[in-house]
Structures are given as structure tokens and as C-alpha cells.
Amino acid sequence: MSDFVIVDIRATTVSVPLEAPLRHAVGAHWGRFVRTIVEVETADGLVGLGEMGGGGESAEAAIVGLLTYLRGHSPFRLEELRFAICNPTASLYNNRTQLHAALEFACLDLVGKKLGVPVHDLLGGRVRDQVGFASYLFYRYGDPETGAGEVRTPDQLVEHALDLKKQHGFTSHKLKGGVFGPDYEIDCYLAVAEALPGDSFRYDPNGSLSIEESIRVADRIQGVRNDFLEDPTWGLEGMRQVRRPGLLLATNQVVVNFEQLASNMMRRAVDVILLDTTFWGGIRPCVKAAGVCETFQMPIAVHSSGELGIQLATMLHLGAVLPNLTYTADAHYHQLRDDIIVGGKMEYADGTIAVPDGPGLGVELDRDKVAEYAEEFRRLGGYPYDRDPGRPGWFPLMPNTRWADPADPVRPSDPRLA
Asked: Per the database entry, which stretches of residues form a coiled coil (predicted)?
């Protein structure tokens, strides 16, 4: 297959609208996802697709800049790709893990298309046809004029959770926290749990709490049917002090590579590893990590770092092949208004999404949608993911003490929120 080598890499940044601006512990998604779509072309004319974020900014230059590293490289040679992009010494100066992930997605897509098989067949074959998802509940800013879509109070959060369950069939629910003080947020969390008896729940303040606050939160939610408490405080040592019987701790922040995974196995601080195809550097590293977790009987789930359809496909192929997938996956996907893949947004059925079965990742670009949302990015530009448009000049401490005021129905006006 001498013609099956990389000859070009293209990158296009798009800005795809969300239902509303989503608030989180270090800032906000400003009403849209800015994602860079990656296309890797081989000499025989096949094109593989990848995707990555950039904290609200474009990653085009970084992606395209790697063409000189990969021109002439076979997409089959994925272990060589890892060292060509992520040599550990070079990565001390220029961490390319997430860039590698986008390129690995595209190479797996290419290999699947070349062989006429879906990516899950390249990874050992699927053990399930659908992957289950949790709802992803955010505190949200409302419409600047009407306030519609706001989620700030317990009642608004309950209404939002019930609506998502009615639309998509979710039976597990995740609250993204770290916006308001922990006592207020746990009041909200408990209200949702009371409104959805029989479902399961998880709370994620993105490491923003002190150890003392984390312990208090853990104690308050003990009566809830919790999947787990996710990243209440920062670091393996902090998590180790919070860990207690009867409540599993999960992370996608402090175990995101194999050295951290080994450290956690030797001196357990975290119970559940949330595998993210971007943060771990691709689908294959996540499969390897899942194998380690299976050996040590450590539960896993698939994590979302904010996705359009290409990355969602990587999450689905990953979830399809993991025998020890213990919990429903995360996804921001239902917060999106649209997508850039042929056929539009993938659909939920009873809280699950079907695993794509076409060659490669099983998704293709809708060129008209890509052009539309690339123009939106050119019009609006990027935004700072680690800033909150409703609190100019604000940034969090860690552990944080600069919480938003839950009594304040802020409606920020900024053209980048469009």
C-alpha cells in the first residue's frame, strides 16, 4: 500500500451554537463550541477525519504545522505516529498530546476506510451496539433580552433535568458545578435527585473545592443514589484525603496518563477513571488504560471534553469495545443546536446513541455546515474558555473562594456570545 501515505493535512475551525452559554468552575462555554476539524489525506485520495478543541480558540496552525512531521507516513503505523508527535522529551517543551489525538482519530478513520471496516473492529470488536449517556446539567446564562434558557435556581435546574429526561431518556444525571458555593450547589443537586427517584447522579465541581468542603459535600450526598463524586478537589493527595467508604471518587483531571494511573493503582486515591479520547491522546491509549483498569478491577466511564459529531464518534467506538465500561458516558452533545456531519446530530434513544457501523469512524462532513460554521468563527472569533462573560475580570482560585452570587440573574451582553 505504497500509495497509502499522508500527503496533506487540512484544518478548519468552526463555531457551532449551543442552546445557551454554559457556566463551569473556571469560566464558561460562551454560547458555542469552537472546534477545529482535521482532515488527513493520503496519496490514494482517502480523507480521514479528526477533531479537537482549543479552549474556545482555533488550533488550526498547530495542526497544520505537523504536516512536515507526517508527510509520507503510513496511517497504519500508529505507534510510530505516537513518537513522531509526542516524544516524551520534546513534549516537555511542547505538549502535543491533544494534537496527537486528533491525528490518531483521522488515521484510524483512514485505516477503517481503507479496509472497509468500522474503527471498533480495529480495536478488537464491539461488545455493545449502543453506548449509554448521562445528562449533562449546567448552570446556564439566559437569553440577553428575555432570560429564556437560564439555569440558576434549584427549580430551574430540576425543570431542565426533567426536560432532558423527557427528550432523550436519560436515567443518569451529571451536574457540572464549581460556579456557586458548594452548599448552594448541593441544595440544587439534592433537588434534582428528589425529582428523579430511581435515577442515578454525579456531581463535578472540577477540583474547585477545598478538602474540608469536599468532605462536607461527600457527607451531604451520602443518601443519594450516586454514581460517583467527580473531582471535588485537586490532585491525587487531595482526593485521597476525601475518599471514604460508600462514595466512589472519579476523575478526568488528575489521572490522564499512564504514570498517574500507575501512581493511583499503587496508592489508591481515585476509584473511577474517566477516559477521554482527547485528554489521553487518542482512542488507543484509552483502550490500553481500560485494560489496566480491568486488571485492577477499577471502574471506568467515557468522558466528554466538548464534542461535535467526529469526536462523539470516537467516544462511541471506544465505549463499544470496553467490556469493563461500568457507567454511562458524559456528553455535552445534547447542549448543541447543530452539528457538522452528514445527517445532522446523532439521535438519542432511551439515553443511548447507536455505535456507527460504517467504514472508519462512520461519519462524514456536511460541507455546507462546515462552511456555515467556519464563517461564524471568522465573524465572531474565539473566546476565553477560562473567563466568565458575566463576571468581567474574574478568575478562580484553587481551592476557589470567588463564587458567583446565586441571587444574581446575570445576562451578559457580548457579541462573542452570539
From this structure: none
